Amino acid sequence: MARGALACAPWGALLALGFAATLAPGPWGDERVNDLFLYRGYADLFLAGALPYRDVGFEYPPLAAPLLALPGLVGAGAQGYRLAFAGLALALAAAVVLLVGVLAGRTAGDRRRALLAAAAAPLLCGAMIRTHFDLAPVALTLAALALLCAERPRTGLAVLGAGVATKLFPLVVAPIALAWLIGRGERRAAAQGALALGAVVAACAAAAVALSPGGALAALTYHLDRPPQVESTPALLLLGADAIGAGGADVVHSHRSDGVEHPAAGLVTALSTALLVGVLAWLTLAASRRPAVPSSADVRDDAARVAPAATTREASASERRTLVLAALTATVAFAALGKVLSPQFLIWAAPLAALALAWRMHALAALVALAALLTLVEFPAHYFDVVAREPAALWLVATRDAVLVAAVGVACRRLTSARARARGSARSPWRGRRRRPRPAPR
């Protein structure tokens, strides 16, 4: 136990120092733009007896309501709620770090690297990591993946459903997880897991509809109707079109954010969504293909006969890594190609950077870390420069978005090369060798 405590000490100290930096003056503690005032307003109303969707217009999924109300039980007033929410975020960050370590261990990654890299997330994300509740759905998504890797698919997909009912983006992991189970021949588990996920989401949605059908519908249309957010890839393409004289773009304050209106906004958003759907479909296909494992009948080399069990364990770790890499890449693709790319969405990418470092995928880890650092430079110090369409600020955000898209491309390429290596290792080393017949003695 003492050894385990010592192993936890480095990442725990790093996480605590990172959170302390986000509470201190300076670039990491800059919280001029945050959502705490909105969350505190909801918390005060909920704790006073108001119900989401019925008495209060609420744009988040149902499980976000108790999560936002919880810090209000501890801290009253703006400063009290701020500190209580920071404590909640620290607890969630610790859970995320531990889950990243678990996933690294179950996917043949370097657990120590993963823990330290995940603990450094506050230094990459700044104050937004404790002024938004995105750590909660990230933790639920990682817990779901850890349960899937531990051969508990029904529980894992139920937990994923809770993540969807907290914030919508974990939904993109569902088809990947189901395809992964089907590819491993676990069709019954996939069907039962899909029912578990659907039951959790349906129960939460039914509760929202029971409170107020109109309020629940308004929460859905709120996100469908909002224009492309000013920092998103589609919005930057629209601003670029305006710069070259292809239509006029206007930055408007809408849906508690700043969006871009342009005559081609619908077309560009549709194309970006189609590209996102294509990437998600490709990741689902990649997860469904089980790496080929050489059977004992194919083994010709006596040196390779010594550890068939080790070969099976390695193949299993490879399959789990495929699941985790495809799932986390899907969440990053959702941020990079969707019509909203709020700065806090970079919190979703932090586990991918940590695990990529643990898997020694250094290019992927560097790209995700660079995107987070560019966001730290831009937000919130230069956010209003982006809204004012200052060229330097727009180029900064455009570079960040391009780096995120590049990270998705690198991850997809790694999935492709891993599958190709698995097929090659099943053919070349085992089947390609033939012993030459010894010449007959004279």
Kindly report the spatial arrangement of strands forming the biggest sheet: 1-2
Q: What level of helicity do the residues show? A: 55-70%
> Using only CA atoms, what is the Rg?
24 Å
- Gap from first CA to last CA: 68 Å
Low-confidence segments, ≥5 residues, pLDDT <50? 1-6, 292-309, 424-437
Number of domains: 1
- Biggest beta-sheet profile: 2 strands, antiparallel
Shape: globular
DSSP summary: helix tally: 18
| Helix and strand composition category | mainly alpha
Give the rounded overall mean pLDDT: 89
> What is the total tally of β strands?
2
In short:
By secondary structure, this protein is an all-alpha fold. Helices cover 69% and strands 2% of the residues.
Keywords for this structure?
single chain; 442 residues; mainly alpha; 18 helices; 2 strands; disordered N terminus
Structure characterization notes:
47% of the residues are buried. The protein has one domain (11-296, 309-429). The protein has a two-stranded antiparallel sheet. The protein has 18 helices and two strands. By secondary structure, it is mostly helical. Helix 5 runs antiparallel to helix 15 and helix 8 packs parallel to helix 10. It has helices spanning 2-23, 36-47, 64-74, 77-106, 111-119, 121-125, 135-149, 153-164, 173-183, 187-211, 213-225, 233-243, 265-288, 308-337, 346-358, 362-378, 383-387, 391-431, and strands at 250-254, 257-261.
